[in-house]
Structures are given as C-alpha cells and as structure tokens.
Amino acid sequence: MRFVLALLLTVLPPAAAATDQVPREPVILVHGWTGAGSDMSAMRDAFAAAGYPAYVVDLPGQNNVVNALVIAALADSVRAQTGAGRVNLVGHSMGGLSTRYYLKHLGGAAKVRTFVSMGSPHYGYLPACLLGEQDGGQMCPFNPFLWDLDAGDDTPGDIAYTTLRSTKDAADVTRLDGGACFHEIAGVEHPDEPRSPLFIAAALAAVGGTCPGTFVELPIT
C-alpha cells in the first residue's frame, strides 16, 4: 500500500472547474500504453471547462494490475477530497484495461458513475503477444490477464459504459458484452484520440449521461 500511495504523488493536480456551474462528479483520466498523464491534458481542460473537477493519473508502468491499484487509490482519494459519492473514469488504449480491472476486481463498480474507453483493446491486440508481461503483453488476446478480464460480464455494476473507437484503430475494440454505448469515429489516429475534438466531445456527452452513438446489449459470454 505504501508503494501505491507513493505512486499517487505523480498524479497531476486537478484542473480547476468553472466556478459558475453546478458542481459535478469528478472525472479521472487514464492514459494508455507507454503514455503519460500529459497525453490527457486537452481532455482534462475540456472537462474542467464543463464544470468537472478533472484529474489525470500518471501510471507507473505497463502492468494493468499495478496500474489498477493506483487508479483505485486515486479514486478513493478524490472521493474523500471532494465528498463525491462516485467518480467518472475515462481510459485511453491500455488504460481502459487497467480501469476495467479496477471496476471488476477492486471494488470500483460501486464507486464509479460512468466509464468511457477510447481505443482500448478489450479483446486483445495480437502484436502485444510479442511483448513481455511487464511491457504490454497483457494486451495479447491469449494472455491470462485478458482471459480473466473478459470472463463473464464485461459491464459490471450500476455504471454507464461507453466504448469509443476510431476507424484507424488496429486493436480489437469491439462492443462489450452486456449493455454499453458504442460509437465509432472516423479517421483519428490512435495516439491522437485523447486530444481529438471528436473524441473529447463524445467523452463529454457520455459522462454527461448521453450516449454519443448506439446503445447495444450483447449476451454475456
């Protein structure tokens, strides 16, 4: 736990929310594989301008379980600091897998209002099979981490789930089993998704309670 709390010192401070708007539940932004918190700066500023206390976490590495522990600790810290009952989570790329692990295995399903993933390889990314376990290999569709994550209900808890993908995403960014909003955006390169006005607008809509695409309910497998 000391390790996790120490890692939280790398969390970027929240962007100031607009003071003339009704207080909204906080938003935590999670960057992707080999990324950094600064990747989420444009999205953070957009949420702050819309009245959300917005936090960005710098993940410690490429292990989703360790990353999920950091997300869990930050979510608890933000809830205590703001008095919010729940938070909203937006994850890009592999950050979406870390976030889903928090929701499924670390009690996050009771503490989160909405979860938006952007370009996350929910059912795997074959080139990741060439990577080591601590270097992104958990994105491999044959990795036990992903098997466990995708077993049963992909959308646990009373959470509004949204998956966003670009037509240029190479990973298997498909609809989640269970009920979730799905929206495909044309022409945005994968690394550019967190700063794309189209992705930012879709994430804002989803966190605000509006599905930016189509709600799809799939059988749980």
Automatic annotation (TrEMBL):
Residues 1-17 form the signal peptide. Coiled coil: none annotated. It holds the Pfam family Abhydrolase_1. Residues 26-122 form the AB hydrolase-1 domain. InterPro entries: AB_hydrolase_1, AB_hydrolase_fold. Keywords: Signal. It comes from the Bacteria. GO terms for molecular function: catalytic activity. The keyword Protease does not apply. This is AB hydrolase-1 domain-containing protein. It comes from Paractinoplanes tereljensis.
